[in-house]
Amino acid sequence: MNFLERWQNRRKKTSRIIRLLSNKAVTITPVWHFALAGLLMVAAVLSVLLPSTLGPLAGFGLAATALCAGLGILQVFIAIGLKRGSGWSRRAALVTNILFIAIASFLAFQIAKWILLFNLIGDAFYKAFGGLAIVVLGIAWWVVAVRIAKRIHDGSSEIEISPKAARRLRPVKVLKRVGQVIVLAGILVWVIQFNPFTLMFVALGALFVPNPLAAVFVLLAILSILMMRALLGEIMSRHVSANQSEEEKLAGWLFVAPSLLGFMAFLAGPLLYSLVMSFFDWNGSSRMTFVGFDNYFGTLGLQVVSNGDAFNVGFTKIADIFGLTVGALDPLFWRSMYNIAIFLVTAVPLAVVPALILATLIELRLPGSKVFRAIFFIPSVAGVIGVTLIWKQMLNSSVGFFNYAIQEIFIMLNFVLPGDPLPTRVEIGWLSTEQWALAAVVVVFAWSQFGFNTVLFIAGLQSISKELYEAAELDGANSFQKFRNVTLPALKPTTFFVTATTVILALQLFDIVFALNQPNVVGFPNNATLTPVVYLYQLGFQQGEFGRASAVAWILFAVIFIFTLIQFNRQKKEAEAI
Amino acid sequence: MAKSVSLVRNLSSKILTYLILGVTGILVLIPFLLAISGSVKTVDDVFTYPPRFLPYSATSIEIDGKEAPLFEIPMEDGSIGEFARVKQGVTVRQWVGIEDPAVKFLAPKEQLQDTGKTIELDGETVGVFSDAAGKSFANVGSAIVGAYQDASDPSAPLYYAPSADLKPVESVSAEIGNFGEVLALNGFDRSITNTVLVTILVVSGQLFTSILGGYAFARLRFKGRDSIFLVWLGSIMIPFVVVIIPLFQLMVGIDWVNNLGSLVLPFVFSAYGTFLMRQFFVTIPKELEEAALIDGASRWTILWKIFVPLSIPAIATLTTFAFLYAWNSFLWPLIVIDSGNQAASVLAPALSVLGGRGADSPNLILAGIILAIAAPIAVFIFAQRAFVENAQSSGLKG
Amino acid sequence: MRLNKKAIAVALGSALLLSGCAGLDTAEPAKLTWMTRPDNQAEADVYASISDEITAQNIGLNLTYKAGNSEGSSYQDKLKTDIAAGTAPDVFWIPGTDIADFAKAGLILNMRDEAKKTDHKDSDFYEGPMASLTVDPATGQPNADTHLWGLPRDVSTFALYLNLDLIQKAGVEDPRELAKAGKWDWAAFEKTAAAITKAGGAGVKGFGAGGWWANWGYFVNSGGGSFFNADRTACALDSDASVAGLSYMKGLYDNGYGVKYGEDAEPPFKAGQVGMFINGRWATPGAREIKNFAWDVVNLPTGPTAGKNWQFWGAYVVNAKTKNPAAAFKLVQQLTSVDVQGKISELGANIPSRKSQAAIDKFLGFTPPENNQAFVDAISNDPVAEGPLWQGNWPAFDKAAGDAVSALFNGTRTIDDFKAKVCTEASGAFGG
After folding, report:
1. Residue contact B334–C78, C-beta within 8 A
2. Is the confidence at residue B26, as pLDDT, over 60?
3. C17 has pLDDT over 60
4. What are the residue boundaries of the structural domains of chain A, listed by start?
5. Which of B74, B75, B72 is nearest to B59 (CA)?
6. Highest mean pLDDT among A512-526, B246-260, B282-296
7. What three-state secondary structure class fits C89?
8. Domains of chain C (ranges plus CATH)?
9. Alpha carbon distance B294, A573 (integer Å)
10. I want to staple C286 with a disulfide (CB 3.0 to 4.6 A). Which of B224, B360, C130, C269 is the partner?
11. Class of domain A332-395+430-577 as given by CATH
């Protein structure tokens, strides 16, 4: 018996268990839900007798007890309903099981401290990296061989190859085979070094020691999975007289469940929590008082007085406009908003307009223009921190390459241009002076973003119908007129989309500033590069003002939301227009 | 006539196009080329000014067991001699010829003979010394200089000159060892393998959940589907920074903080990925599915046996998206992983630390950057189409 | 066949249980982690080897060393996040200025009670750091009987790193000779800087200084001024003497003698573009790599008030959340022992924080630079110890004053405007 057959036999055996369960589903599943009801009741009783078992829920003592009891009673109803064959009960039972699986596996995960497995896997992965490198090498080898083979095949069909091509293919086949051997060898080396079996043993062992409760929860989760299979089985389906659409509905919920649970746990939950936190004065641990909208007022508060008048307590002057003086409760927040506004009006056009022009040029489809598309795209894949650190070295005012290049260009221009010579020594303090620091961030942002936008514009250009151009040509339009009268209007939605996404990205500016600006204080010099996200980071993770930081996060969210909404409406209108 | 005019115009517009594209391409590539060249420079070379593009290394010879760098020194006969610097910061005297005031040189006092005589020079009385040939010189001051030995004739008297005035003997050469050095630095190699691991796990996790969810949203009718999908779409626009504080609190609460798992588990769910897969699945003809259903195949089988093989382009697109996201993520690992915890460090924050720690040796920082950005760029070159699709599908279809 | 399978299953199961006995969360006795902020890999390696040595001594300490984030990637801020997450090391190093900030936020332990159980004596260390480390936060005054926040790891001080080639080219007198003759003062410094800038050619600067408080702070102090009033409860940057020092430095920048303030001056210095570079002892290991020009160090130029160089220090402190305070203090003692300090000063980056002649001798014997004595002189000649702000907020003060000075040196602010407003701007640091 070879490996594959044995595997299939095993599959058959497991499916036999499931079939058995499915056949007896009508009797077994109510029992299971009665058992669950018992478990929940025990939990309810325990939570009264031994409040310490509640752990993090301890603060909600009575509510937790009530919840356990309520859910327990619900299980009884489900069990009875299942017995009677009510469709509602089947649905509720499925939801219960899904939740139960999630909770039981999470508890097992926590009790066994399986999170530590990640570090062990990291260790093993580090030690076995050589094997992986061999595999990658082998794959690359194989891919190259396949490409060569394809090129030889070109023109002739797969089945009928000319004898000449066949002869040329023979060494390529050897190449392919060598690639496969390398991959196999790599996998072998990797398995030996990585040693997944030890990891498995440790993982399973952790379920029993130090606390076998983890194993119990895993067992319960497995049982619950089996019960779910039984609930979905044909017998049960007939028992509750479910139709095709009922089955589809259940399958739908089942398929969305993983994403939905993840969404709740890691996005919706934290989002709500953050909203709650923004109404508290909270330093992360000891101090926590409800302050209503104070965090928002304290962040946004502005006061306008005519010149000479005094501000209320707590307000600091931030600007003079039209003879009026504006004061703010939180000048740093407004400085960050001011900075990001300046950043938006400079960086976004720089990242969008060149992209539009370059996309048009690339779409002329001169030979080799695809290469340029690829080159322009590189900065956006390379990773912000890496490229920013490169720029940081280039931007040093006295020995950096950037100023040196400007200087050399000036020297060359001095030969050509009449009038006063340009300075032959350039020492712009890109990283140190208030007037240039944001400009440096703009340069790095635009440089790393325009290539991505170019690709978006190319897609937009490709979707413009050729007939429009032909019509314009018949009218005798030259290429510039074609660009102005055909391309630009047709590209409006794309332009709008590109601008909106760039704006949304720019509003979240953090990495570039963090990597570019020193020393120590991010936002140096004189807060010239303080952005809202940097400010949020400082509030939350440097000063531990989690309440205030959450409020800033929500304000920023509101701003981004407005831009998204504008874009969304716009797209909707276009969709309707079509 | 008209034809040739239009030909010329055509040609000149072509040249202009190439010129614009080419100049922009060079501007894009320059930082990368500088980084590559800087990453194989020696630490001296990376600090030279004006900046040079190619990596040079100084040639040196061994004298008395010490490395002595070679310098070019113009000889009296007009040729260029190679001298090795054996000492720096030597205090020597400046001499000027009495017979011929044009002869000026630097040498220690011991190299000349004190004649005991003095002479009046620019209103000052200075001692007169003579050399081996009997010519006499006046001592006009002292200087701190380097001492140089003739590489071809070690017995010749030492030559003295200020180091800044001499040109070192250099040749273009790449210091490949920088890469090994940076890998050993502060667990940088571990950061790389960790990043690879995290990326693999995040990508496969996102693919799994997105395919399941995408299929349900595309093909299964169930109550509440459309409203859930709307919430889903909405969540794409939630900036990550909004949840970063509560998510951090959550990680602390369940004790996942400072662990590779905290970089993986919260990120295997992707609203964008689900959306992307859904958009693709919607376009697959219904007939395929219905035929399979009649044959008694389960939804699960249909999804993996029929839909997934047909959706390779969308999967590739999602892979590139998740790959870039996982590989380059910075703010989250910065917050959730302890400083100094090499076991769980990943590349972007490790680079940021390297940028501070390696201030003494920018060549090593650049070598680290090259290692970090090599993988995404290599993957991009191999799978260009998927990347471009990813960029284009990020909104136009929506 | 079936029996066989059972046997395998039993064997596997017991193997599982056996291997599982280790579990994932193994609790071992007196395991401590500690962390510093090394400036380079050599330093990190020495700390790691010290960690291993102490573990090997078998004195009940099982140590793991972590190299923390570097200065440029916000070591202290990251540390605070880690403490909030409950995962920070048991013992860690922080700069002297941050002691109060950490202590007042309850992040570090008062170790006086632990210290009393051991043979520790405050008097083994320099007074400046110890005064700041024994402050009672309630009163803001030292109380060595009740408080001990940590022990200083090292001290350090500023010197001028000289590019001798550029000085030679400028044809000015050697600052080292001037210092010996007692003529190395502000005027001589300005003259030298001017000459180097003029003679050096395009881009060469007379001097360079880092963009942080101690650089301009030296000119404030040696001009007779100071950051704070005598009991450190208010800003004193607007006093005439303080402003005189800053005004002198602004003059240097306005004349173009300096590398732009706020830029990292180390790359241009190493590229041979800067004549005199103000930096601490910690820059010496990096300077040893210089091959392009001859270099040495000299004392900072004397101002109207003699001495007043900085006495920098940082201290090992104990995480307030440590599970084992006694072992943690033992570790702090081990890390500041004569033996360990000797090893660290052999790196050339630090001056021992213990008042021990043996350690100083070891330090002096380590050349280049030839003129190591410059550092020792600065430490013994009435230095100003860097210190935390017990009745205020140092980071807030640093930020406010730093921004004001940066604007001053970069020409966007006048000296009068600075004098009039700087202490109002910094008032937030004193709760006002």
Report:
1. yes
2. yes
3. no
4. 3-116+210-242, 129-194, 294-328, 332-395+430-577
5. B72
6. B246-260
7. coil
8. 31-155+312-385 (3.40.190.10), 158-308+392-430 (3.40.190.10)
9. 41
10. B360
11. mainly alpha
What do you get for the CA distance between the two ends of chain C, in Å? 85
Amino acid A518: pLDDT:
59
Q: What pLDDT is recorded for position A161?
A: 66
Residues of C in contact with A519 (CB under 8 A): 71-72, 210-212
Q: Which parts of A272-426 are beta strand (E)? A: 280-282, 288-290, 302-306, 316-321, 324-328
Name residue B299's amino acid: R
d(CA C212, CA C71): 12
Inter-residue contact B186 to B309 (CB < 8 Å): no
Domain boundaries in chain B?
15-56, 60-168, 179-393
B7 CB-near residues (< 8 Å, 6+ apart): none
What is the distance in angstroms between the Cα of A305 and the nearest Cα belonging to chain B? 33
For B184, the closest chain C residue by CA position comes to: C41
* Cross-chain CB nearest to A518 (options C72, C260, C274): C72
B186 CB within 8 Å of a chain C CB: yes
Model pLDDT, residue C263: 83
Strands A324-328 and A302-306 turn out to be: antiparallel
With an 8 Å Cβ cutoff, is A513 touching chain C? no
**pLDDT score for C3:** 46
CATH class of B179-393: mainly alpha
Report the amino acid identity of residue A111.
Answer: I
End-to-end CA distance of chain B: 50
Q: Which of A202, A198, A215 is nearest to A111 (CA)?
A: A215
Residue A286 half-sphere exposure toward CB, CA atoms < 13 A: 3
Asked if A554's CB is within 8 angstroms of B242's CB, the reply is: yes
Does residue B197 contact residue B260 with C-beta atoms inside 8 Å?
Answer: yes
- Per-residue confidence at A13, pLDDT binned at 50, 70, 90? low
Average pLDDT of the segment spanning C175-199: 91
Structure-block tokens of residue C393: 């907020």
Q: How far is CA B151 from CA B81, B137, B154, B156, C193, in A?
A: 8, 27, 6, 9, 36
What's the gap in Å between the CA of C88 and the closest CA on chain B? 7
Residue B396 to residue A372, Cβ atoms within 8 A: no
Separation of alpha carbons C386 and C214, rounded Å: 9
Q: Averaging pLDDT over each range in A148-152, B165-169, C8-12, C163-167, which range is the top one?
A: C163-167
Q: Work out the mean pLDDT of chain C and round it to a whole number.
A: 84
**Using CA atoms, how far apart are residues B113 and B130, in angstroms rounded to an integer?**
5
Determine, for residues A114 and C71 on separate chains, whether the beta-carbon distance falls below 8 Å: no
- Taking the Cβ of residue A431 and every Cβ of chain C, the question of whether any pair is shorter than 8 Å is answered with yes
- Its ipTM equals 0.88
What is the pLDDT, as a whole number, of residue C20?
44
Separation of alpha carbons C170 and C315, rounded Å = 42
**Among residues 200-219 of chain A, which lie with CB inside 8 Å of chain C?**
201-202, 204-210
Does residue C363 carry a pLDDT above 60? yes
Beta carbons of B145 and C166 less than 8 Å apart: no
Confidence band (pLDDT; 50, 70, 90) for A522?
very low
